[in-house]
């Protein structure tokens, strides 16, 4: 990394290093809300030293979003694990100087402001490239850094609505529905993470940094892959189908005598096993259902033949029968049910951070042999690491107090 013209480089102390495949990578985190913090949470979980820069006295917007645990926002705690918090006023020139000193020894910068915001602050990619030519700079925004919508605000539901995602979600004939999780935000965070890791690999080969432009709207379109491809190449206009698959049948939820189940039959062999388990072997010879394509074309005739049979037994009875027949099936769990499922428990998908704190979150779903991840660190209090990070930059205690008095930190 190049040196900073404004002061000493940050020291690389053992206290700020994390174990994992990204150990030794430093990330400057200028993100807020969800599209961005989710990406930097994941980078931190993989071992990066993530320095979250927040507004003095205010911090990330999500710090004040309910519900709370011990006066801390659960929303904030969930996606800001594995980070250190530095408060810094980027509207002050001294704050910008400190920021550039951090950037000089960092590998990655992630921000999710509206397009043009960082340029107006004098902290855009072109401004920082001379400070650190090896910097990987990732910008996540609603609509990208160019185009007619680049300056518009965007939230998850806007991206889902504009992309067409809501038009294919929900029950047939019902109102358009938002996907239950914030897939607009999380999708862009994941694509940004892929871009960052790719740029780090490119930098290892060329020594050059990169600018990464990720738009929430673009990512939603990419996630709709099959719906987009069917429309463009076959003229098939996707629509809401409830739990049913547009190309496969039966592939949906069915009511039973008590609780519903989900069933997926993707091959003729699975079809044969399903009708055997249901006592409907005669359907194997019905010309409407001989192939997967025919079953899908005639799903409106097939479904009424299956529904009353499923209604004759309980959910658990059907799940036992279908598992014995090796037919893909599942209970339709609530969130509470899913979190105590034996497979979920076995995979360690619920983590307590910090240990014995009673605060539990979804764990990182990556298991990597040879590069195990370190235990996750809790989300930081606002400005919790300001003094330590400034000390790493070479500031004395008196200097730090002066910066605080001047409202720079």
From TrEMBL:
UniProt GO MF annotations: transferase activity
Keywords: Transferase
Domain of life: Bacteria
Entry-linked InterPro entries: CoA-transferase_III_domain, CoA-Trfase_fam_III, CoA-Trfase_III_dom3_sf, CoA-Trfase_III_dom_1_sf
Pfam families in the cross-refs: CoA_transf_3 (PF02515)
PANTHER family: SUCCINATE--HYDROXYMETHYLGLUTARATE COA-TRANSFERASE (PTHR48207:SF3)
Protein name: CoA transferase
Lineage: Bacteria, Pseudomonadati, Pseudomonadota, Alphaproteobacteria, Rhodospirillales
